Amino acid sequence: MRYRATIAYVGTFFHGWQVQENAARTVQAVLEGAIGRFLGAPVRLHASGRTDAGVHADGQVAHFDAETFPPDAILSAVNVRLPWDVRLLGVAAAPGDFHARSSASAKRYVYRFSRERVIPPREALFRAPLSPRADAGLMASAASRLAGVRDFFPFSTAGTETETTVRELFACEVAESGPAIEIRMTADGFLRGMARAIAGTLADVGRGRVPPERIDAIFAARDKGLVSAKAKPRGLTLEKVFYPGEPGAPLPGPPAVR
Fold this sequence. Notes:
By secondary structure, the chain is an alpha+beta fold. The chain has 2 domains: 2-94, 2-Layer Sandwich (Alpha-Beta Plaits), CATH 3.30.70.580; 106-242, Alpha-Beta Plaits (2-Layer Sandwich). It contains 6 helices and 10 strands, in the order βαββαββαβαβββααβ. Strands 1, 2, 3, 4, 5, 6, 7, 8, 9 and 10 form a 10-stranded mixed β-sheet that branches. α1 (27-39) packs across α2 and α4 (136-143) crosses α5 (194-207). The protein is globular and about 55 Å long. The mean pLDDT is 94.
């Protein structure tokens, strides 16, 4: 039986999603251990994508194959075997051809900044500091220049391995609430480091270090040197993974500049 699991985790104390020989505590390793103990056999999880060390998830999706069990039994039995900072939010039987990564049509990341002088401890793990003078309007102006089908190579981490660096960013929106600023990015896929590089560049726009037009220059020159330093991982959360036919799944827009 193939199962689809929706997963949430606090990324602070994990060395990212992927199993690593030199880092025992990754999200994948902890989950595979708990599921394997319940099943009495090793299991391999395949996620919609990897998250970096320190990045959180509210709606990561992964699939795995196992003997037939009621999904609710898996959910309950695995969660009691997990540490406090990771949980299965749901488990369901999936079609045999479902693949958490290749079947996905879009993902939404949220980056959270705080302009407070002192960030309260309950929010400190999930918000990155930003200058109290940062201008959300300037950030929104820059963000609006990102949407469309574009070559996001400049926003990718060196060494990214992919057939193409062209992605469709359906929306990049900046929302302001008191001292909080959130960047919501929905795309058909994200290159390694892309979400944090976008957040870091928009933060520099908000600080007044670069103009909103810097986004146009980055795409025109295809120059990584024009992209600001990546924002800290603690502010980034994988909020949702979309699959075709599901409510809320974004539809491709008209072709844009590549």
